[in-house]
Amino acid sequence: MTPSFLEIKGLTKNFGGLRAVNNVSFSMERDQILGLIGPNGAGKTTLLRLITGILKPDAGSIRFMGNEIIGRKTWDIVNMGIACTFQNMRPFRRLPIIANVMVSCLSPRAMKRGEWVKRLEAKAMDALEFAGISDMARERASTLSQGDLKRLEVARAVATEPELLLLDEPFGGLSPAETDLMAKSIKRLHKGGRFGRLHSEGPAMIIVEHKLQWLMKIVDRIVVLNFGTIIADGTPDEIVNNPRVIEAYLGRGEI
Amino acid sequence: MGLILFYFRKLFTVLKNEVLVLPSRVVVVFFFLFLLLLPLFTKDPYLLRIFTLTSIFAILAASWDLLSGFTGQMNFGHALFFGVGAYAAALLNRHANLPPWGTIPLGALAAVVAGLVIGIPCLRLRGTYLALTTLAFPIILMGLVFAFPDLTGGELGISGIARLARSRVADYYIAVVLMLGLCTIMWKITDSNTGIIFHAIREDELAVRASGINTTRYKLLAFCLSGFFAGVSGGLYAHFMRIAGPSTLEVSLSFQVVIWAIFGGIVTIYGPVGAVFVLFPLLEFLRFWQDYRTLMFAGVVLLILLYMPDGLFRWLRDKIEKECPRCKIRNVAMRHTCRVCTAPLD
């Protein structure tokens, strides 16, 4: 039996007395786009940070392509093929946008994989073009608007050429038109055929998002978190009709 | 003959298209020429001595900028590297009888080790905490120096070290050529891919990790590189002054370096170098008013920092050059259109 692509078992994380992620277990396959939703404070971002190794879990295991990744350093995990974006954007503000992306291109994984693309700048430009901000490549990151910063985050994550891409609110702060563009780029990225990997499939993704109507169009499967536990798992249609999900978001109705 | 002509023409083209278009580059060329040709016009030992010391401290200031300006690892104990370089060179010279060209590189390597020793415990610290921790290290070493007076000479230091070279002019040339070469290397490092990662670590370390870069390795690299260059300057100092004493480890030297770097403008290599070349001779010049020397010095530094918070040389550069809003290439301030993309400069 081949090990599943990403397998999370019994993952638990406490912040003092608060149990942010409580015994979460799920697995996903290589070709999936998984949506992760839940009310505020449900532990979605914490879960992503546990996967990328920024936070250390108190219990549980995460296996990525058959390897245990808990206890590894963040950069090791990124070089294994998991890239993430930050919800509150963290660009290198005083550097030009292209340099922001070049840092990702300089990671060992990106250096190894895109060997045939000789020039670093060309690779970085490629990622910027994908995100749609290549015309501002020489501007400083501090001059960007919120929406463009979001795209820069995506460009930076994509430049490491991940197998699994964790997007933390990729549509946050974007106008409807921009959201549409971003959704299309994500869909296109998933189909593959970008970034030095012409004949390969695109990355699997976990997307945390609140704009459900856009998320529904992209994802194959949705996992719903509430108070750190999974309350529902299924296709988008199943989820919108699930009474527990409606209760978690809206509360129980008094009749 | 044709080959020589070819290179000559190439040199001329580069000069015309790359150097003469920007006043800052012209200034750098003149700075190089001035330093290299100065002994042809004057052999005044006092002047040469000042410029030799200035060159040595310029290396030190630039190496601080590499670590604290670029990588953002605030180091308030930079004298440690300088002192380790100086003491190592002195001990090797006295006890192993190595000549200066052997002791200075070995002293620099000792400073690299010192960089590792303080870099590893400081990996988790940042900001103020890092600054205070680094401040402690030269003081600890100074305590060790006083604790073993047999080896280190205690308060008197190690004297009677071999001269750098036979004559003043040779001393001068060794210091100046090393300074120009090492500072060019540092500038090249900051301009390379490694330099981009250094910049990025200063801006946001977590984001660099999330980009798949081993930040531990790069931070230690910054500590080691900075230690190496500072160690070279320490070794040069020991051989030039012919003494390695506790003054090379003093807190005041650590802060002197910070003042030089901030005066000239951090996150540029040329800033600290230029600042040393302004401030060090200035301090000598102010000997006219012996009593008010330090006060005047402090006044000058305060005035500059008050009106040019980015540093003197950044400010000067922005006065004579403008950045093209479209292609971000620098132009002479007098131009109305960009020299490359012809976009109007406001």
* Biggest sheet strand line-up of chain B: 1-2
Distance between the termini of chain B: 47 Å
Calculate Rg of chain A over CA atoms: 18 Å
- Biggest beta sheet attributes of chain A: 6 strands, mixed
For the largest beta sheet of chain A, what order do the strands appear in spatially?
Answer: 6-7-8-3-9-10
Radius of gyration of chain B: 21 Å
Q: Please provide the count of β strands of chain A.
A: 10
Mean pLDDT, all residues of chain B: 91
Question: Structural class per helix/strand content of chain A?
Answer: alpha/beta
N-to-C span of chain A: 50 Å
Number of strands of chain B: 4
Task: Give the oligomeric state of the chains in this entry, treating copies of one chain as homo and distinct chains as hetero.
Answer: heterodimer
The portion of residues assigned to helices of chain A is: 25-40%
Name the average pLDDT of chain A: 85
Secondary-structure element order of chain B, N to C: HHHHHHHEHHHHEHHHHEE
Shape of chain A: globular
Question: What does this protein look like?
Answer:
The complex is a heterodimer of chains A (255) and B (346). Chain A has 255 residues and is of the alpha/beta class. Chain A has helices spanning 44-51, 74-80, 97-105, 108-113, 120-131, 146-158, 176-191, 212-218, 236-240, 243-250; strands at 6-15, 18-28, 33-37, 59-64, 67-68, 82-84, 164-168, 204-208, 221-226, 229-234. In chain A, the strands form two sheets. A six-stranded mixed sheet of chain A has the order 6-7-8-3-9-10, with helices on both faces. Chain A has a four-stranded antiparallel sheet with strand order 2-1-4-5, covered by helices on one side. In chain A, α7 (176-191) runs parallel beside α8. The mean pLDDT of chain A is 85. Helices cover 71% and strands 3% of the residues of chain B. By secondary structure, chain B is an all-alpha fold. The model of chain B has no long low-confidence stretch (mean pLDDT 91). In chain B, α4 runs parallel beside α6 (128-147). Chain B has a single domain (43-297), classed as ABC transporter involved in vitamin B12 uptake, BtuC. The A-B interface holds A 52, 54, 73-75, 78-79, 83-84, 86, 90-96, 99-100, 102-104, 106-110, 120, 138-139, 156-157, 159-160 and B 193, 196-197, 199-200, 203-204, 206-215, 327-328.
